[in-house]
């Protein structure tokens, strides 16, 4: 996420949390002085019930209606090719937990949109609250390291703008017999995670209020800490899953999205608009 986003795309369909998404995007645009592109892809009549919210936006905005002959993701690919957006905002659909054969729309956004995606769940201000960054500093993969940095930088940017506290959350693997000595004792694993997190934050010149370290599964521990802290925003990363497996099953970021009550900002590696349709 760049330090000065140059284009914010807001996806609106008239569904749950739609007004929350519009309000949140408006606040971000005001603070960063960035114009909004509003894309309505819901049923007609468009913008019904949103006149007051639109009138209260004090930022430059462009309004679009999705061409009924074009799919949402074809339109997003076309927009991305024209000018990449630095943030996509949408109201989070609360129905993810219901059984379905294919992936929910929000999950597809996390998999197919290369820009950071903010899924909004509530109206409460972020100002003075807690911003939680989920990282995995014990992972030695280069991609995960880059994702951890992007998560921390984004969380730091938000916490600075909102005068909020920056926290990190780290889920560790359980101790395993037969593993290296430092991986057989929970306290040693936690100590390594803490040292790795501190080293990463020092390298980025960041000073989180607290590192919350606990034994996984990651989707459980991260959601638990987020809910217990009443975090205003949870920043996580995803290495999106595509193809048939991605259409039928979720990944960790999607599980976290469905089990926390806060707004969620998802960072993703890569910069190419992909097609899994």
UniProtKB/TrEMBL annotation:
Protein name: UspA domain-containing protein
Keyword Cytoplasm tagged: yes
Domain UspA: 152-268
Localization terms from the record: Cytoplasm
SUPFAM superfamilies tied to this protein: Adenine nucleotide alpha hydrolases-like
GO CC annotation terms, alphabetical: cytoplasm
UniProt xrefs under InterPro entries: UspA (IPR006016)
UniProt record similarity statement: Belongs to the universal stress protein A family.
Function summary: Required for resistance to DNA-damaging agents.
One Pfam family, short name: Usp
